[in-house]
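Chapter review: from sequence to fold.
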Amino acid sequence: MEDWGNTGMKITLDVDCTPIEARAFLGLPDVTALNAHLVEEMKARMDANMALAAPEELMKTWMNFGGAASEQFMKLMTAAATGAAGRAGKG
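The token string follows.
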């Protein structure tokens, strides 16, 4: 009698099938209808929320904020440059 010991064996098996065939082979449920329902519900909710968000108003707010932020930044840079020039003149 031969002693095979701890020799290992590696087997690679490639299966060419569609996701539907793989789910059926593994005994998993077909969730195609559920997925379609969830996608439609998500679309409906997104459409409703987009109407409430009023994209035009958001853009106006963002543009106003951007202009105010630019103005504040320019004031900060002017004050810094004026302060630096004043210190340089005293040295």
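Two observations follow directly from the output. Residues 55-90 form the longest helix (36 residues). The chain has a mean pLDDT of 78.
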